[in-house]
Here is the input.
Amino acid sequence: MRRKQHYAWFFIFPGLILLLMFTVLAAILAFCFSFMDFNLLRPQDASFIGADNYIRLFKDTSFLKAMKNTFYFAVIVVPYQVGLAFGLALLVRENVKGIGIFRSAYFSPLVTSMSVIAILWTFIYNPNPTQGLLNAVFAKAGLPSCDFLRSADTAMNSIIFMSGWHGAGYQMMILLAGLQAIPEDLYEAASIDGAGAIKKFVYITVPGIKNVLVFVVMMTTISAMKLFTQPYIMTNGGPKESTMTLTYYLYRQGFQYRNMGYASAVSVIFFVVVVGISTGIKKIMKAR
Amino acid sequence: MKKKRTVLLLYIVNLILGLLYLSPLIWMVVSAFKPENRIFSDMSKGLAAFLPAEATLDNFRTVFLRSSMPKYIGNSIFYVSVLVLLSLLINSAFGYALAKFNFKGKNLILSVVLALLVLPLESILLSLFYIVNRFRWIDSYLALIIPFIVKCFDVYLFRQFFLDVPDDLIEAAQMDGANPFTTFIKVIIPISKPVFATVFILDYVAYWSDFMWPLLVITDADKRTVQLGIQTFFTEPPVYYGPIMAALAIASLPMIVLFLFLQKYYVQGISTSGIKG
Here is the structure.
């Protein structure tokens, strides 16, 4: 039996090499580059500069703005999207005839990619009531038109509204599975004891779904931190950098200005923030 | 009696909310079949914006004849299929070794894989670009495929699945003289169809929708992926609503088809991730 264990290496080898060559090496390089003055346009001038990139970043108002915007997005979109998903999951929870159609309906925005959705909503958000669907609806309802993506005050909120709509179906499916894992007996026993719908929700549904909810919050927060496609397609980070996000800033520094070193420092900070958030959420939720 | 009324109420609420939820997509599809001026004239009439009228295929004709959308769809189908198939093969083998073999260094490799699960791809995209550039893979499908074949989450999913496969089954196959490779291909893979289907659709959708990485490594107009293609189609003036809506609908079609067949596995994949996580 011992003899055949070395076969394991044949199974692992291709994957392991690729993992080392791309993921692991890329992570190490990102860390090293972040301490260098390194522009891809003049690689011959590259040099180590210690923590200068980091120091510069914390004085860089665009970066700080990107950080603030990303957190703002996450703080608003997570409760909105998870709340929406939870509401929808409760609505499609009963296994009655035809409920699958509604589940698919709420899930369907996810079947189309984010770029498709972002383009579609750029038209929906057009500030001109004769060209933008939402403003046409507003006009019909007698409401004043809104600038949506064209104004620094409303651009990020417009992206939030759309992103939550697009993504909620995903979390709905996870929460639905969590809801269905709660034993039906509990509800029946509660009914016999005379508990009403609200009591059942508070004492059975909420504790039963708690762990899944924690997972969903964490997952939604992490993906919120990665916001890129929507501002890239819809606003180019504007107006007035109001939709500039961490990943967009990373893209701008790294790929438009080719500032490999400086952008790598953004990558490292991004990594620390994302990992920090996920461990933080886990800890807070465990403590309860 | 009361139960019946609640169910009816549930249907009504879901019907209204469902239609409202779908309204942006309904508008997209309906507008794709409308002449340009009709899209605008219906917009101010409320409900008419969401109802079909003067159905025409002109917008689709424009997309097919005057844009490279069909080509971009072909590009995406090609590279995503190659990527996902390679990824299934290599990640399943990786997960199998971590689940069913005992060898020196296994725990180290396993903990590296688990640790890398938290690494957000966005934080290494830049250095990955540097590596890919050094390989001279810019504007080549190699850049879209090779770096992403190994995915720690897939390795983890496969390992979890294979852990539950009884050892007796593997030993029985080896008694019959099968070596570890034939055991894997002829015994393990056939009983693991659900996990393969799940990983297949999760990855297919994810790579199909990917926007940021192709944006970095593909500049050649002929090699654009669907997502890059619709984005350029959308930014290049003159902007007409109808053809763009048609292009958006066409770009979504392959995923809709995939979902019709594999939706069950996709839903399984995302819902078990919550229960296990």
User: Anything to note?
Assistant: The first strand of chain A starts at residue 36 and ends at 37. Chain A has twelve helices and two strands. The CA atoms of residues 214 and 282 of chain A lie 8 Å apart.
